[in-house]
Amino acid sequence: MSILKIARMGHPVLRTPARMVDRALLRSSSVQKLIDDMIETMTEYRGVGLAAPQVHAGLRIFTALLDADEEGTDEHPPIVAVNPEIVPASPDVVDGWEGCLSIPDIRGRVPRSRSITLRALNRKGERMELPLQDFPARVVQHETDHLDGILFFDRMRSFESLTFLEEYGRFWAKD
User: Does the annotation mark 143 as catalytic?
Assistant: First the structure.
C-alpha cells in the first residue's frame, strides 16, 4: 500500500465531476489497490473521509470513518462507497464546522442535511444503504460533494466563519 499525494484547492481535478465506476472496473486490481491506498492515505493524514478526486483519481469512490468523532478517532474499519447517492431523510438543515485535507488548516461552518440515507456499492460491488445523521451524515455529504467537483467553500452561506485551524482551536472548537 502507498500514501497518495493529496490534491490541494486550485488543482482542476477537484473541480471535475468524477465518472461512475462499473462493477468490472471496481473488481480490477488497480481500483482495489486505489481503495487500499485511499484508506491508508486517509489514516496517515488523520482524515475522516477521502474522495478519489482528492488523490487525483476521477472515480466516484470515497472512504469514510462513519463512527469517528470530529478528531478522526475511530475503532471501526472505514466504509468504501462507490457511486454514492444521497437522499435527505428529513428537511432539517444544520450548520456545522468542516475542514478538508485538500484545503489544509482551514475550517468553516457549512449547512448540511441533518439526516440522510446513503445508497452506494461497497468495494465488492454489493449494494448498501445506510441511514446516517449528524456528523456521519455531514462526512458523507462532504465526500460526495468532492465527487461532483464541489468544495465546502461552495456550500458556505457566508465566509464570516472561515478560520485557520489554530484560531478554530482557540476560539471555536467548543461551538
Answer: yes
For the chain, the residue count is: 175
| Residue-by-residue pLDDT tens, the chain, 175 positions | 899 999 999 999 999 999 999 999 999 999 999 999 999 999 999 999 999 999 999 999 999 999 865 555 556 889 999 999 999 999 999 999 999 999 999 999 999 999 999 999 999 999 999 999 999 999 999 999 999 999 999 999 999 999 999 999 898 887 6
Is 32 in contact with 46 (CB distance < 8 Å)?
no
Domain boundaries, the chain: 12-172
Task: Specify the CATH number for 12-172; select among 3.40.50.2000, 3.40.50.300, 3.30.360.10, 3.90.45.10.
Answer: 3.90.45.10
Choose, from 71, 143, 166, 167, the residue flagged as catalytic: 143
Q: Is the pTM of this model over 0.85?
A: yes
